[in-house]
């Protein structure tokens, strides 16, 4: 269960959402798209097209070659301790290809959809169909969504209930903007919502459904609107993976020289720890994303060298503040107390 | 015997302790009732196999009673009408507005009460994790009542042990959770508190564990004994060492 906290204007999180679905189409998985604000048909029309392998490899290959030829022979004089560390790679190398790459400037061709089965759940349509129903005191929109998911899982045999089915397939579920007012939940609009437990109950039942079947799910939530932080803590506890996207649009960081190459930060709050005692933690915790013309990339955040001639106090303090924020860890591995900064 | 152990984690995942206690008690030959609210059976099974215990075998010979919260919640919501005519589901409180955990307690009690021909040593109740009950709509008072009833039944009457995992955070905004955790801390005989290192993330030392042994509940008696170790989790094992003496440093 991948839980994504949306960035303020929802631009980048919807991009991530579409990537997830596009990957599903390309891999031949079935899709289930649920949304309250945009009709799923429209969402599916806007999925990015698959990037042909050649162009992508060339792009990355060129960058890698350029880097190598520059500082191949230089041996470090001052920072010689760092000589033996592997060269830091900003973007994933072509040798470890996992998944596919997508071209954001083009949309996926409709023929690709013919081969997969996709189901949609558009809340305004569903609400007009039946009368209200309440499962376990949950918000009726959530209840209906759960019923719909459960029905699809059961009917299409993702939970192994139909032994006749020879080919096993995976169901990719994408739910957009859960918890927002459009779903009838008021946790985003008031400090003391009417039913605090709707979202958490929904997530618990969804988790049960996912564990029971061959499916994966991504949910985007406008976390910045949720006033009651206790809910976010509970939700983090109930999800396998929690990723937050923070975009720089409209914030003071847009002009911060630290971040001039990037469009936003990626905060990994939790990574899944399934079927083992340990989890796979990467070396770095500071990730940033940027949207180039064709690619949406997530890279390690590296600070630009501090080459300013003027030593102005204000900017140095700014940098220190931002650097402090960079060292926050993620929840699966332990985070320390905040008052110590290194 | 008759001990209440609280597993508490702050900003990290203390579930490795749950796996440890599960395999520990099963190997010791105790009858275990495991209320697993957050993960599926196969997850615990796979980890337990790495630790040398088979949960399926334990379930078959009646040593382990496993309540898979996720599955019984689904059965409750989407199950057929006929199945519900039997015993009420232990997680009934989710669908009913009365938020008391009586059904859950009855389930625990019936599974740990020794049957005629049982030859197991003391009963053990293991809960992973209690904070989820709050997310599902139980009030903090109901959760505390549930634990209290379990203590009476398991610790006092049946002379068994209870191990419970909770999540907490010092600057947490989840007041209900903090209320439950603080209350449980006062009632525990042993607290294992797992937290992150004060200095932040480290690859070789995953965190530190504080062991607080409650020696006496009387006022003016001796202070609780506190021991602090650091740990590193590996695939099949967790190594503990004194502070600052990680293998990476020596």
Automatic annotation (TrEMBL), chain A:
Metabolic or biological pathway: tRNA modification; 5-methoxycarbonylmethyl-2-thiouridine-tRNA biosynthesis
Sorted UniProt keywords: Cytoplasm, Nucleus, tRNA processing
Chief subcellular location: cytoplasm
Domain of life: Eukaryota
Functional note: Component of the elongator complex which is required for multiple tRNA modifications, including mcm5U (5-methoxycarbonylmethyl uridine), mcm5s2U (5-methoxycarbonylmethyl-2-thiouridine), and ncm5U (5-carbamoylmethyl uridine). The elongator complex catalyzes the formation of carboxymethyluridine in the wobble base at position 34 in tRNAs.
Natural source organism: Ciconia maguari
Similarity remark: Belongs to the ELP4 family.
Any one of the GO CC terms: elongator holoenzyme complex
Any Gene Ontology biological process: tRNA wobble uridine modification
Gene3D superfamilies from the UniProt entry: P-loop containing nucleotide triphosphate hydrolases (3.40.50.300)
Compartments reported by the entry: Cytoplasm; Nucleus
Name the record gives this protein: Elongator complex protein 4
From TrEMBL, chain B:
Keywords: Cytoplasm, Nucleus, tRNA processing
GO terms for cellular component: cytoplasm; elongator holoenzyme complex; nucleus
Superkingdom assignment: Eukaryota
Main location: cytoplasm
Pathway membership: tRNA modification; 5-methoxycarbonylmethyl-2-thiouridine-tRNA biosynthesis
Swiss-Prot/TrEMBL GO biological process terms: tRNA wobble uridine modification
One Pfam family hit: ELP6
Matches recorded under Gene3D superfamilies: P-loop containing nucleotide triphosphate hydrolases
Keyword Cell division: no
Compartment(s): Cytoplasm; Nucleus
InterPro entries named among the record's database cross-references: ELP6 (IPR018627), P-loop_NTPase (IPR027417)
Keyword Nucleus part of the UniProt annotation: yes
PANTHER family referenced in this protein's UniProt entry, alphabetically: ELONGATOR COMPLEX PROTEIN 6 (PTHR16184)
Family indicated by similarity: Belongs to the ELP6 family.
Protein name (record): Elongator complex protein 6
Upper classification of the organism: Eukaryota, Metazoa, Chordata, Craniata, Vertebrata
